[in-house]
Write a structure and sequence with these properties.
Layout: H1 6-12, E1 19-26, E2 33-41, H2 51-56, H3 59-65, E3 70-81, H4 84-89, E4 97-107, E5 110-119, H5 132-136
Antiparallel strand pairs: 1-2, 2-5, 3-4, 4-5
Pfam family, one: UTRA
GO molecular function: DNA binding
Domain UbiC transcription regulator-associated: 2-125
Length: 152
C-alpha cells in the first residue's frame, strides 16, 4: 500500500493509499523480458490481489473475480528513453527508445485502476482494431499533439 504519484491520484480521483503492483512480464518460452507493468488499484483489493494469487492468474482475471466490471479503458501511448533501471529490467541499452502505455480502467463508469506498461519496441508492437463506425466517428484512436507555443 502506497500513496500514488499525483498524476495517478488525479486520474483515479483519490487522495488515499492504493494497492501498488509492479511486475516484470517475460516471454514464457525464452524468459526474455517483455513488459514492466506498474498498476495502482483500490486498497480494498489488497486481500484478493496477493503475490500468490498474481502468480497463478492474470491481473485482469483477478480483478474480474472481485466483481468489478470493466466498461472502458482509456489508453495513452508515449515514447521515452530507457534509464538505467528500465534498461536493466528490459535488457536493453541505456538511452534506447521505449514505449509506455498508460491505461485508465473504468468500472461502473468511474475510474477503477491505473496501469502503466513499459516495453521495448524491438520485442513488442501495438495492434489496434476499430470498427468502421468507430473509424468514421474518430472514436477509439486520437492523436494529441503536445506542441510548445513560440514566445511572442
Amino acid at each position: 500500500m502506497r500513496r500514488p504519484p499525483r498524476a495517478v491520484a488525479r486520474a483515479l480521483q483519490t487522495t488515499g493509499e492504493l494497492l501498488h503492483v509492479v511486475r516484470l512480464r517475460r516471454q514464457r518460452r525464452t524468459g526474455e523480458p517483455l513488459i514492466v507493468s506498474d498498476v495502482w488499484l483500490p486498497a480494498e483489493l489488497a486481500g484478493t490481489l496477493t503475490e500468490s494469487a498474481l502468480r497463478k492468474a492474470p491481473l485482469y482475471e483477478l480483478v474480474k473475480r472481485t466483481g468489478a466490471v470493466v466498461d472502458r479503458v482509456q489508453h495513452e501511448i508515449t515514447a521515452e528513453i530507457a534509464g538505467p533501471r528500465y534498461a536493466q529490467l528490459l535488457k536493453t541499452a541505456i538511452g534506447a527508445a521505449l514505449l509506455r502505455i498508460n491505461r485508465l480502467i473504468f468500472a461502473a463508469g468511474v475510474p477503477h485502476h491505473y496501469q502503466s506498461v513499459l516495453l521495448s519496441p524491438t520485442r513488442s508492437r501495438l495492434l489496434l482494431t476499430q470498427s468502421s463506425d468507430e473509424l468514421e466517428a474518430a472514436d477509439g484512436l486520437a492523436i494529441a499533439h503536445d506542441v510548445r507555443r513560440e514566445p511572442r
